[in-house]
Amino acid sequence: MYSPDAPNNQKLTKASSEDVIESFEQLLENDQRIEPRDDMPDNYRRTLIRQIGQHAHSEIIGMQPEANWITRAPSLRRKAILMSKVQDEAGHGLYLYSAAETLGADRTDLLEKLNDGKMKYSSIFNYPTPTWADMGAIGWLVDGAAIVNQVPLCRNSYGPYARAMVRICKEESFHQRQGYEIMLTLSNGTPEQKEMAQDALNRWWWPSVMMFGPPDDQSPNSAASMKWKIKLFSNDDLRQKFVDMAVGQADILGLTIPDPDLKWNEETGHYDFGEPDWDEFFDVINGNGPCNKLRVDSRRKAHEDGQWVRDAAVAFANKQKTLAENQAA
Ligand code: BYC
Asked: Which of 42, 53, 204, 286 is most buried when burial is the number of CB atoms within 10 A of its CB?
């Protein structure tokens, strides 16, 4: 079994580059997919298990801030949509855990590492959702950021991950639209509703900008991941793309992005923007964000509460196996 524990930052050491398998290099060079049957360097496998595992964890932890609002959605229509979105996130987690399993990872091991705080999940889900407008801001900004980050992943070098991402991105696109529609409704509503939308934008903007990961010069995994075509664009390039996209969308909503340094740069053809609070980002990914404890505790409780379902599934599978064996005898 491969574990995501092994250090990833040693990737391009002499020993590992010597190990690199010729057929693997050839597939990468030809822009072909690496499949589970193919030889691959151990560090490629570990990096993928780390990234896919964290991605899967983000999907299932990401259910919590929104699930919080299912019982309080303002109409039956909104409730049905939100419930469906949260269910989609569970499905995304399942596709991704399955993709990690094709690399030899063990799902139970990955989940235990999440529950024990030994594996990361996206920083973004460690912030609270105190108002209904947060459902709009998450859909618009968080799912919007997810699309910018994940569309290129549909072309990443590992076949099962890339194929899982195609379906995930289609669903993310619906999620983004439902969030934007909530923001549009609130922005065109009463002054109080518009204020609620602005407040949600104020709270979610910077965490969304930081979701793309640390700046390129502080991103230890990027060099190897880009060489291996797991990442096709750098953290900063994707962040810029997101900012460029969001500015026009905020204009349509009539809302103000909370960044005094945001301005169009004629020379670069992009928006300049301010520096996120990277101390806050590192605090959050090290377990000290506003909701880290709550998220992991809730996750652990859900896992424990689900033990009877896993036991029942194993008992049923064993019963079926015994029946089949008896019939064959
Ligand atoms: N949060 O070297 P770097 C969703 C960690 S789900 C936490 O740049 P890498 C949704 C990073 O893991 C969205 N940790 O890393 C779901 C590394 O630590 P380790 C999730 C972060 O991997 C439900 C260290 O910082 N999306 O959209 O090359 C409802 C150094 O970073 C974060 C994905 O997982 C972060 N934001 O690049 C709604 C996409 N950023 O592991 C929506 C797939 C960095 O060395 N993942 N770290 O201890 C990726 O694209 C890449 O893994 C990242 C980071 C761009 C996130």
From this structure: 53
Distances from the Cα of 82 to the Cα of 70, 86, 272, angstroms: 6, 6, 34
Instruction: Please report where in the chains the tokens 């969001």 appear, as a residue.
Output: 246
Q: Does residue 131 have its Cβ closer than 6 Å to ligand 1?
A: no
Tell me the β-bridge partners of 34: 158
Q: What is the pLDDT of residue 7?
A: 45
Ligand 1 geometric centre to CA of 246 (Å)? 20
> Which value, in Å, is the radius of gyration of the alpha carbons in the chain?
21
pTM assigned to the model? 0.92
Q: Give one DSSP letter per residue of 91-129, joined into a string.
A: HHHHHHHHHHHTTT--HHHHHHHHHTT-S---GGGGS--
Reply yes or no on whether the pLDDT at 11 is more than 50. no
> Would you say the C-alpha torsion 46, 49, 54, 57 has a positive or negative sign?
negative
Pairwise CA distance, residues 97 & 221, whole Å: 21
Give the model's pLDDT for residue 17.
54
- The DSSP call for residue 270 is E
Q: Whose CA is nearest to atom 43 of ligand 1?
A: 55
CB of 249 within 6 A of ligand 1: the answer is no
Q: Is 60 in the pocket of ligand 1 (CB under 6 A)?
A: no
**Using an 8 Å Cβ cutoff, are 9 and 220 in contact?**
yes
Dist CA 207 CA 224 (whole Å): 26
Q: Which atom of ligand 1 is nearest to the CA of 8?
A: 45
Nearest atom in ligand 1 to the alpha carbon of residue 211 is 36
Task: Answer yes or no: is the C-beta of 149 below 6 A from any ligand 1 atom.
Answer: yes
